[in-house]
Amino acid sequence: MGRKRTIKRDTVLDAAEQVVMRDGAARLTLDAVACEAGISKASVLYDYKTKQALIKAVVERRLAAHATCEQEVAASFSGDPDAAIRTRIEVASHLLTEEDRAVALGLLASLAQDADLREPIARTYGERIAQVTGHSRSPRGALLAFLAIEGLMSLEWLGLHDWAPEERARIIAEIGWLVDQVPAPVSAPASVLSSSPERSTR
Fold first, then answer.
1. Whole-angstrom Cα distance, residue 141 to residue 119?
2. CATH, residue 155
3. HTH tetR-type domain: from which residue to which, for each copy (predicted)?
4. CA–CA separation, 45 and 40 (whole Å)
5. Which listed residue, 4, 150, 184, 197, has the most CB atoms within 10 A of its CB?
6. What pLDDT does residue 192 have?
7. How many domains does the chain have?
């Protein structure tokens, strides 16, 4: 019978996040994670054969934790056709923790350079957009609200701008107002149409 598995995956992932926050994903190595966790490199290799696999596991765990949070919030909007976007706005109303921001910034370079690492995030956003536009009373208004809330959060995730609490609360409330709006139909600007690939004359 093989040796019983005693090292929990969360132990390895917790250590990986600590390394990312301290040194950035560029300096994340299996050796560094093993040292941070106080375990052998072989214990890390048991579950994660490569640095990429370890980073992807960190990303997926973060996404899963965020999804759990959203599910808990969504319960309070049960029966509301706009539940998907209302949930997203409510989640965004809570300030980011410094740990969340540090992990996001630490992973950014690796995510930018690796499509496979971005795939779980891209899939999650695709699902969110489908929920928002597929189930809202005003799909266009809800989509605009979604884009606004994601823009706000991106500035915060990247550490590019921090709002005063009162102003942030006002912005969140105003984004909520967008959900019920029905934008007038508009045509794409001629400059956009003329620069689209199918209209290129090259």
1. 27
2. 1.10.357.10
3. 6-66
4. 9
5. 150
6. 56
7. 1
**CB neighbourhood size of 185 (10 A):** 6
Q: Where are the alpha helices (DSSP H) in the chain?
A: 9-23, 30-37, 41-47, 51-74, 83-92, 98-113, 115-135, 139-157, 165-178, 190-195
Of the pLDDT bands very low, low, confident and very high (cuts 50, 70, 90), residue 26 is confident
Which domain, by its residues, includes 145? 9-182
Look at residues 173, 178, 171 and name the one whose alpha carbon lies nearest to residue 138.
178
Q: φ, ψ for residue 8 (rounded to 5)?
A: -75, 145
Query: pLDDT tens digit string along 51-98?
Result: 999 999 999 999 999 999 999 999 999 999 999 999 999 999 998 888
CB 150 within 8 A of CB 89: no
Mean pLDDT across 31-53: 92
- CB within 8 Å of 19: residues ≥ 6 apart: 27, 28, 32, 33, 36
The residue type of 191 is S
Task: Tell me the residue length of the chain.
Answer: 202
- Residues 124 and 178: their CA atoms lie apart, in Å, by 22
Q: Is residue 4 assigned to a domain?
A: no
